């Protein structure tokens, strides 16, 4: 019956197959699971092709006999009594095993803890800078944001008789850190660096961690007093942390530069952390 | 109509073999200096202009002119276009800085160091360093000057950073723009032998500001005499770099206009130095104690003289 075969063909064609090929083409941030699963991958399901037979009696289950004979369609690969199954996910690149889990089914706590652990791991990498690619490969900007906001908050409350003479305001610190990091990244890319834009921002932001620790120490020391001794302690702490920050970021960033331009790239980083250290050192409470 | 063979990829022989096969073919070689006269306006080389050649560094500037023409070919909306302005190595930047601090009498900074490869790295980062150096040194100097006073409360004066940034970046970019426009205008009226591109002028100005960085650090010393000596010294050095760069460009013009141009360049440079000194660095205290003048209501008023 040609009409039925035409309908069957149409049904097979327009089958809203639930087994979309999840090809991994959706861009994922840093190559790992997102905290906000906006770009969530569909769960790779086992695909079961069901044929909606046009007649009312037959349902789309395995073992249903086709009505009449469809010699043309019988040549098509699908055998009636064996459901077609298979995984259609196409793995792209190298995936760690936890990529295949769907974040929809796990508790929210797990999702958040995974990201927090990643951020914490990067903090550890900054404090003990070795040549590891974890900071570069799985970049994220949560850590820099947290550090920048906490540093800017701690720099508040600086003394001033008039607003014009005081320390930097929150917006000024924020802009200096982010704009400075963007300018340094652009500088290194223009000089021929091979690092990507966000990787460089990530490294520069994470390496503000020693200076945030220095700010914390300075505030605590200033609680004790603000004489010469406290100034000397603060000076030593800030200088040490400034050196640590610069060395840490240089260790991560210098390798991606052409060898005869390394100094040209390192100097702006030095200037950037110097300015932040100066802001920390000159902080005087009300 | 081209045959199929014509459209296939062909290997080309070595240049020597090709030339041997066809000795009359025109060849272009960019290894030797090309025989194009430097002054495009057709003036003959006179013996009195020899110092010009020295100033212009004609010897291999032709080659670099030719090579430079092949460089900046990317359209301006691509990233590669801007990468051509950062095509410098560390030693080149250091050489240019050295050339701006120790001006060789008779040598033109642009021709000697820039050589048709102006960069934006130097001007940008020297200006950034100068901004922060002036702000930090000014703050430190004020701190040391007012240190002993009981009523003094230290303030970081962070607003001055943005003022310093505006001033210095405006000077380093707007003055070259004005100067370039002026030179272009005069060029259309008088056939000058030398004309600089906008980026070369920005380069000269940017590198000539380098001497102010150690000067600003030394301005922390709270002695008026020391500060003014430093101003004069740095003005002489960087001013001479600018003068030696721009004098050949305006020399052929009307005498008064040439002198006025060079004079304005030096004057603006001096204004920048003196203005920064006056605004960011408080006047140092004098050594002798100030006289005490009894006021009309009996309280004493201490004045600074």
TrEMBL record, chain B:
Report the membrane topology from the UniProt record. Multi-pass membrane protein
Location of the region described as Disordered in the Swiss-Prot/TrEMBL record: 31-61
Swiss-Prot/TrEMBL keywords: Membrane, Transmembrane, Transmembrane helix
Which GO terms of type biological process are on file?
vesicle-mediated transport
Which top-rank group of organisms is this from?
Eukaryota
* Cellular component GO terms, alphabetical: Golgi membrane
Keyword Membrane included in the entry's annotation: yes
Q: What is its main location?
A: Golgi
Any Pfam family the entry gives:
Yip1
- Could you confirm whether the keyword Transmembrane helix appears in this record? yes
TM ranges: 120-141, 161-185, 197-222, 228-250, 257-281
User: This protein is called what?
Assistant: Protein YIPF
């Amino acid at each position: 019956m040609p009409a039925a075969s035409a309908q069957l063909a149409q049904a097979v064609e327009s089958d809203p197959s639930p087994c979309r090929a999840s090809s991994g083409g959706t861009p994922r941030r840093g190559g790992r699971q997102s905290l906000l699963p906006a770009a969530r991958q569909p769960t790779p399901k086992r695909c079961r092709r069901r044929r909606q037979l046009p007649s009312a009696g037959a349902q789309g289950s395995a073992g249903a006999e086709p009505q009449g004979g469809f010699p043309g369609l019988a040549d098509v690969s699908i055998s009636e009594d064996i459901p077609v199954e298979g995984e259609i996910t196409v793995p792209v690149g190298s995936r760690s095993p936890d990529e295949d889990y769907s974040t929809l089914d796990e508790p929210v706590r797990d999702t958040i803890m995974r990201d927090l652990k990643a951020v914490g791991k990067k903090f550890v990498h900054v404090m003990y800078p070795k040549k590891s690619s974890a900071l570069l490969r799985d970049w994220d900007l949560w850590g820099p944001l947290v550090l920048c906001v906490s540093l800017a908050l701690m720099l508040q409350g600086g003394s001033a008789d008039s607003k014009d003479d005081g320390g930097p305001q929150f917006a000024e610190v924020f802009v200096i850190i982010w704009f400075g990091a963007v300018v340094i990244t652009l500088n290194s890319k223009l000089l021929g660096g091979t690092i990507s834009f966000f990787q460089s921002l990530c490294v520069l932001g994470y390496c503000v961690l020693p200076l945030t620790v220095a700010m914390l120490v300075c505030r605590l020391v200033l609680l004790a007093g603000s004489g010469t001794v406290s100034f000397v302690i603060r000076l030593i702490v800030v200088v040490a942390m400034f050196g640590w920050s610069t060395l840490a970021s240089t260790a991560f960033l210098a390798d991606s530069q052409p060898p005869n331009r390394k100094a040209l790239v390192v100097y702006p980083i030095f200037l950037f952390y110097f300015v932040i250290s100066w802001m920390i050192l000159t902080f005087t409470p009300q | 109509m081209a045959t199929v063979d014509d459209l296939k990829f062909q290997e080309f022989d070595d240049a020597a073999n090709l030339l041997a096969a066809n000795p009359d073919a025109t060849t272009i070689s960019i290894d030797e200096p090309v025989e194009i006269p430097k002054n495009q306006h057709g003036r003959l080389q006179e013996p009195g202009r020899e110092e010009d050649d020295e100033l212009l560094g004609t010897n291999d500037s032709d080659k670099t002119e030719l090579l430079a023409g092949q460089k900046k070919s990317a359209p301006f909306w691509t990233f590669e276009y801007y990468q051509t302005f950062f095509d410098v190595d560390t030693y080149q930047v250091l050489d240019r800085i050295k050339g701006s601090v120790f001006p060789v009498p008779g040598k033109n900074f642009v021709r000697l160091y820039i050589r048709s490869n102006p960069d934006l790295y130097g001007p940008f980062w020297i200006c950034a360093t100068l901004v922060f150096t002036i702000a930090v040194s000014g703050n430190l100097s004020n701190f040391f000057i007012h240190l002993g006073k009981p009523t003094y409360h230290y303030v970081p004066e962070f607003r001055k950073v943005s003022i310093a940034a505006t001033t210095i970046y405006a000077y380093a970019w707007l003055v070259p723009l004005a100067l370039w426009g002026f030179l272009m205008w005069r060029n259309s009226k008088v056939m000058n032998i030398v004309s600089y591109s906008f980026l070369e002028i920005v380069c000269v100005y940017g590198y000539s500001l380098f001497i102010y960085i150690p000067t600003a650090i030394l301005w922390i010393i709270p002695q008026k005499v020391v500060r003014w000596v430093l101003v004069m010294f740095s003005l002489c050095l960087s001013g001479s770099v600018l003068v030696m760069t721009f004098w050949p460009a305006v020399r052929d013009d009307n005498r008064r206009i040439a002198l006025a141009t060079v004079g304005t360049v030096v004057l603006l440079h001096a204004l920048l130095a003196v203005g920064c000194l006056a605004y960011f660095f408080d006047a140092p205290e004098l050594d002798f104690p100030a006289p005490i003048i009894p006021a009309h209501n009996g309280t004493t008023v201490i004045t600074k003289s």
